[in-house]
Amino acid sequence: MLKNDTFLRALLREPVDYTPVWMMRQAGRYLPEYCATRKQAGSFLLLCKNTDLATEVTLQPLERFPLDAAILFSDILTVPDAMGLGLYFAEGEGPKFERTVRTEEDVAKLFVPDVNTELKYVMDAVSSIRKGLDNRVPLIGFSGSPYTLACYMIEGGSSDDYRNIKTMMYARPDLLHRILEVNTLTVIDYLNAQIEAGAQAVQIFDSWGGSLPFGKYQEFSLQYMARIVAGLKRENEGRKVPVIVFTKGGGQWLEDIAATGCDAIGLDWTTDIGQARRRVGDKVALQGNFDPVALFAPPAAIEAEVKRIIASYASAGEAKTGHVFNLGHGISQYTNPDHAAALVAAVHRFSGKKA
Fold first, then answer.
1. pLDDT beyond 90 at 98
2. Where is this site: Transition state stabilizer (predicted)?
């Protein structure tokens, strides 16, 4: 039995004693202990593939902060890497792929990998982390959305304008739909394998879906995420496995996202959480939505912003149900860990957690 299941109960809109909190990218370069472990591993990718070290860095933030959930240490781009695209990380440039998917020939070569073989190291990490957690808090598994994965696969890395994928979307939508089909089938297999290995909740990161125009978002991103939600194993170890859908920049589509069948919607910092709650009602829980850059402000300002977000959520209904506090995107590598500690403490204090 979990010693602290507040996070899972909040996602399922069950009554909780306080608002649970975790941080996207909570195991990362802002922590000196993470940097030391990454140096020991030799590279980011080797760290992801080393079961013991991936377990170690997943647990590191929980040793510092009283967080209410752990998230698997991995990367969304392990999926296209398993498809043979050759993921590597260029120093100072972020993720890159040796091969892109831009032509009919490229698309024809795409395949759904055997995730339990090609991504076995991820499942090994999930199992190992669960043992390391010893039921302290739940473990979150995750994947990129089909569209976000396609952005990297087609662009070959990060992009400012998504020119190649959007050109394909307008000129050859059939090719893009084929890529998204393969990605969707893979993500369903991948998340189900994580659940089987012990993940107690899963999140779909649609990091770049917000770059799409209205209508195109529904066609090229949302419908595929809805298929993933429908294809997931939703119960394990005797309890429901909640699903969170997070589209950065997707605040205008909350009603559509809620209709996918997910349990919770992740919000970035551009949407007022109280207004979001009024729009979706009791259909889903909400996760978010502190601006990660606000963590560079003094602790008093961090606390004021935490208080504002909690009050905004409470203004639209019962305070202690359906809210998971989080950042609106990943924590910056330049964040002072003491400021992250101030955030976590403020969430617990202002939402009524007893000492």
1. yes
2. 75
Place of tokens 């952005």: 151
Asked if residue 207 lies in contact with residue 158, where contact means CB atoms within 8 angstroms, the answer is no
Q: Which of 238, 339, 241, 239 is nearest to 290 (CA)?
A: 339
Q: Round to whole Å and give the CA distance between 341 and 323.
A: 19
Backbone angles phi, psi at 215, to 5 degrees: 90, -50
Measured in degrees and rounded to the nearest 5, phi and psi for residue 266 equal -85, 135
What is the SS3 assignment for 322? coil
Q: What number is the average pLDDT over the span 177-187? A: 98
In angstroms, rounded to a whole number, what is the distance separating the alpha carbons of residues 324 and 322?
7
pTM flag (> 0.90): yes
Written as six digits, the tokens of 146 are 């089909």
Catalytic positions, please? 25, 29, 38, 75, 152
Query: Could you tell me which residues come within 8 angstroms of residue 72 by beta carbon, excluding any fewer than 6 positions away?
Result: 54, 58, 122, 125, 126, 129, 139, 140, 141, 142, 194, 199
For the segment 114-134, the average pLDDT, to the nearest whole number, is 98
CB atoms within 10 A of CB 120: 16
Q: What CATH number was assigned to the domain covering residues 6-350? A: 3.20.20.210
Which amino acid is present at 32?
P
Q: How many other CB atoms sit within 10 Å of the CB of residue 98? A: 11
Q: Which phi and psi (to 5°) does residue 88 adopt?
A: -150, 160
What's the rounded Cα separation, in Å, for the pair 78 and 49? 10
Tens-place pLDDT, residues 13-52: 999 999 999 999 999 999 999 999 999 999 999 999 999 9
Neighbours of 170 (CB within 10 A): 9
pLDDT above 80: residue 92: no
Q: Kindly indicate the confidence band of residue 202, based on its pLDDT and cuts at 50, 70 and 90.
A: very high
